[in-house]
Design brief:
By secondary structure, the chain is α/β, with parallel strands linked by helices. Helices cover 19% and strands 22% of the residues. It has helices spanning 41-44, 48-58, 71-79, 93-98, and strands spanning 2-7, 22-26, 32-37, 61-66, 83-86, 104-106, 150-151, 154-155.
């Protein structure tokens, strides 16, 4: 049973789960066993949080410590069986490891922050809409449509 701490590049607890620079994983004895860099969030778009969740599960993480998290991300983590705890953002890693910081257990999605973006049509909450394909009337990529001689006064 390992614990993952979401950190900024300055080794402080990240104020946002999805924007943490790194997730440092510690075993029960307090020894660092892994680091998961949060790279590629731009390339993956709205899927990067799911990738992080999968990587944490593969490392045997049972508890995630973070500064803040949105309601949908929190619901996804709780449903996956993670114990999620919140501490004050920008808490130093040294204070976290010494145990001098009070952790608040998050047990329901309502304890997360309200989502700032409108839920997009893609269903992930990223705020983007799926673009509909543009229909081309009277056009064919290989050859003209048979029987069609005029469109809007133009001869084909």
């Amino acid at each position: 049973m390992a614990m993952a701490i979401a950190l900024t590049s300055r080794e402080q607890v990240a104020g946002h789960f999805g924007k943490a620079a790194v997730f440092v994983i510690y075993d029960q004895q307090g020894q660092q066993v892994a680091r998961i860099e949060n790279t590629g969030s731009r390339e993956l778009g709205c899927k990067h949080k799911k990738v992080i969740q999968r990587q944490l599960a593969e490392c045997g993480v049972s508890e995630i410590v973070l500064g803040n998290i949105g309601q949908r991300s929190l619901a996804r983590l709780l449903k996956a069986g993670f114990n999620v705890s919140r501490v004050a953002p920008r808490t130093t890693l040294a204070d976290m490891l010494s145990g001098s910081v009070a952790k608040e257990a998050l047990t329901s999605a309502e304890q997360g922050r309200d989502c700032k973006r409108e839920k997009g049509a893609c269903g992930c909450g990223c705020g983007s809409k799926k673009k509909a394909s543009v229909a081309k009337v009277g056009m064919s990529s290989l050859s003209p449509v048979s029987g069609l001689t005029k469109i809007g006064g133009f001869k084909l």
